[in-house]
Design goal:
Elements: E1 7-9, E2 11-13, E3 19-27, E4 30-38, E5 44-46, H1 47-52, E6 57-60, E7 71-74, H2 98-107, H3 111-121
Parallel strand pairs: 2-6
Antiparallel strand pairs: 1-5, 3-4, 6-7
InterPro entries: Endo/exonu/phosph_ase_sf (IPR036691)
Organism: Arabis nemorensis
Protein name: Endonuclease/exonuclease/phosphatase domain-containing protein
């Protein structure tokens, strides 16, 4: 059924065994307490939903007052893009137009393109 509905587990953090319990068994005449863990709680999505919310994930917390772990689902539209380190070229300070281009760039929604275009188009 899960395959037919195109469902897949969402990315997760934490211990995916969302339930734990104990049972007592007898082994060679001795009573042994065993811990049982199971992945009962899941967050799933189909490919259409995953395409709309590609950065979504689940976080399994430690159990507090129950034998089940709380699960937090974070729904995110955009994936974060790591940005590189900013580097400033000191030689730009020698060009008298740089300050003006930077001011214009900060006031425009697509300032990076404005700065690139002005510097490229105003080469001596």
């Amino acid at each position: 059924m899960i395959t037919q509905c195109d469902m897949k587990d969402l990315k997760h953090k934490g211990n995916i065994f969302s339930w734990s319990g104990q049972r007592i068994t007898t082994h060679t005449g001795r009573r042994i307490r065993e811990t049982i863990q199971s992945c009962l709680d899941k967050a799933m999505a189909n490919s259409s939903w995953s395409a709309l919310f590609p950065a979504s994930e689940t976080l399994f917390l430690k159990p507090i007052a129950s034998d089940h772990q709380p699960v937090i689902l974070t729904i995110e539209v955009k994936t974060s893009i790591p940005r590189g380190q900013f580097r400033f070229e000191n030689r730009l300070l020698q060009d008298s137009r740089v300050a003006e281009v930077i001011k214009e760039g900060w006031n425009m929604p697509s300032g990076a393109n404005l700065v690139d275009n002005n510097i490229t188009n105003n080469k001596d």
